[in-house]
Design brief:
This is L-threo-3-hydroxyaspartate ammonia-lyase. It contains 13 helices and 10 strands. By secondary structure, the chain is α/β, with parallel strands linked by helices. It has a 6-stranded mixed sheet with strand order 1-2-10-7-8-9, sandwiched between helices. Helix 1 (7-17) packs across helix 8 (152-168).
Length: 315
């Protein structure tokens, strides 16, 4: 796909990937609602295949390739969930996945890639190293590169989570998602804009990887002043495709500290009794931080994933 996905595009994608993914549940908690003073509907992508929403975009991008492209294999760079998504999609179509992962990627996510028969190529934990290593893989194998977020097929795939959420809860006033590279946020923004044009789309972003809020304000790709956050899935800059969509349709980006992320994550573990990773808790932390703004409203939140290293829990 070489254009911003339309509603029709996203619905076609949903049909294409439906049999390869889970339709995840939407959970609510009366005690959380009473605590905050609004109605929150959590779209639980931690129950998705590979434990994260990225199964959607990865599956769509790989299914959209020609047979010849699929046969040469698929490559990407990712610290975790997109890596597993591409490994799963490649295995589904019967081809090889060559996954470039930084040396400091969480072990649980590396193990997930290996379990799906993905070949891991390690690199230094910098974007430059990721990109140059992928380039070498392409030269060596002829594999097709699927960008983790700056790719319209991936964005359309991620948008399907919000299509399901709004189909189930049709009168939301606010829809929230975290932002790292912006694939999920731009997909969420498109689906919400098409189906609920009057709803607000609000993102949460870690203070320790706060590039999106700068890019959102300036209109060009900015770098975060510093990178240090527990939300390991969100340490990525926006891409030109995601930034364009986010600036068109997102109302606001709220930044949150690691302390706020951890307490939001803990509240979800305690009240909803589900496992989510720190990146997942970021939009909920943003809501908690500015709760008066959401009072009395119906809010949908995408809980992005549950791939957390249980030996390193922050509480």
């Amino acid at each position: 796909m070489n254009h911003i996905p339309s509603l029709e595009d996203i619905q076609t994608v949903h049909e294409r990937i439906k049999s390869f993914i889970h339709q995840t549940p939407v959970l609510t908690s009366q005690s959380i609602n009473e605590l905050i003073g609004c109605e929150i509907y959590f779209k639980c992508e931690n129950f998705q295949k590979i434990g994260a929403f990225k199964a959607r975009g990865g599956m769509n991008a790989v299914l959209s390739l020609s047979k010849e492209e699929q046969e040469k294999g698929i490559t990407t760079h990712s610290s975790g969930n997109h890596a597993q998504a591409i490994a799963l999609a490649a295995k589904t179509v019967g081809t090889k996945a060559f996954i470039v992962m930084p040396t400091n990627a969480p072990i649980i996510k590396k193990n997930g890639v290996k379990a799906l028969d993905g070949e891991i190529i390690e690199c230094e934990p910098t974007l430059e190293a990721r990109e140059s290593t992928v380039q070498k893989v392409i030269e060596r194998t002829g594999a097709t590169f699927v960008h983790p977020f700056n790719n319209y097929d991936v964005i359309a795939g991620q948008a399907t989570a919000t299509i399901e959420l709004i189909t189930e809860i049709p009168n939301l006033q606010v829809v929230m998602a975290p932002v790292g590279g912006g694939g999920l946020l731009s997909g969420t923004a498109l689906a919400t804009h098409y189906l609920l044009p009057n709803a607000e789309i609000i993102a949460g972003e870690p203070e320790g990887a706060a590039d999106a809020i700068l890019s959102f304000k300036s209109g060009k790709i900015e770098k975060a002043p510093f990178i240090k956050t527990i939300a390991d899935g969100l340490m990525t800059n926006l891409g030109d495709k995601t930034l364009e969509i986010i600036r068109m349709y997102v109302k606001d980006i709220i930044t949150v500290s690691d302390e706020e992320i951890i307490s939001a994550m803990r509240l979800i573990w305690e009240r909803l009794k589900i496992v989510i990773e720190p990146s997942s808790a970021v939009p909920f932390a943003a809501l908690l931080k500015q709760k008066e703004r959401f009072e009395g409203k119906k809010v949908g939140i995408i809980l992005t994933g549950g791939n957390v290293d249980l030996g390193k829990l922050p509480f």
